[in-house]
Amino acid sequence: MSLITESALRAMHKSGIPTPFLLGKGDRLTPAAADFLKGRGIPVKAFDDQAASNQAAQAAQEIPLGVSNRHVHLSPEHVERLFGKNHQLTPMRELSQPGQFACEETVTLVGPKGSIHGVRILGPARQDTQVEISRTDGFVLGVAAPLRMSGDIEGTPGLVLVTGRGTVVLEKGVIVAKRHVHMSPQDTQQFQVQDGDTLILETQTDRPILYPDVVVRVDKRYALDFHVDLDEGNAANVKTGDRVKVIGKNGQFYSDYRR
């Protein structure tokens, strides 16, 4: 609570008076101060602490979204077989997760029914080769890829990877990635979850969709991000950089959620 005078405003004027000028709870302007602001066309508004608190709380319960197109993770052995001995993947741009990048290199996916060219490789190389496609891609290729979390490739179908320098026949490794949220240990404190929990998320577009079972994956290397594939992104009319709202967890809606 304070009394704001004309002299105080004149001192602020040198560095710039905010527009509108916000009055905190209990703050008052002297008549001369009010005339000073009015004469300069600066509106005065009451600062709503509750509204600001609500906005901050809402922002704290939102998660950035990333739409993931088809891509390939290669093992070091398969990098060499497709691009030559001692070849190192060439970073093209960084991804949302620290240390991960899209590569200059691409491959062609060949399935029983068709092929898809120019599929981006993501680096760095990892232990097992994995191909992540959408359901729509599966129809084109003739591959019935199961819905799996990344890394869970036992019992999955394979296909053929082709470049101008080599070919790899995969016996397994093709999946449709199950939607998931990456979180750091600090993020789990904010959202009150732990690794393996599920969140209920809602898009905020003209085609709102609820995702009832988004798995939380936790690692100190992760940055907060919700991943969906291209089919899911198109269905909800979302794009990378949009935000989704957390409205529940482990199958239960939060009490303040309004449908």
Number of helices: 7
Question: Unreliable runs, pLDDT <50, ≥5 residues?
Answer: 50-59
Give the N-terminus to C-terminus distance in angstroms. Answer: 39 Å
Q: Main beta sheet: strand number and arrangement?
A: 9 strands, mixed
Would you count the extended β strands for me? 20
Question: Rough shape?
Answer: elongated
Number of spatially distinct domains: 3
Q: Percent helix among the residues?
A: 10-25%
Beta-strand proportion: 25-35%
- Structural classification: alpha/beta
The rounded Rg comes to: 26 Å
Family: Belongs to the PduL family.
Keywords: Acyltransferase, Metal-binding, Transferase, Zinc
Protein name: Phosphate propanoyltransferase
Cofactor: Zn(2+)
Structural account:
With 259 residues, this protein is an alpha/beta fold. It has three domains: 3-57, no CATH class; 70-177, no CATH class; 179-253, Barwin-like endoglucanases (Beta Barrel). It contains seven helices and 20 strands. The strands form four sheets. Strands 6, 7, 8, 9, 10, 11, 12, 13 and 14 form a nine-stranded mixed sheet that branches. Strands 5-18-15-17-16-19 form a six-stranded mixed β-barrel. It has a two-stranded parallel sheet with strand order 1-3. It starts with a strand and ends in a 6-residue tail after the last strand.
Summarize the structure.
Belongs to the PduL family. The chain is α/β, with parallel strands linked by helices and 259 residues long.
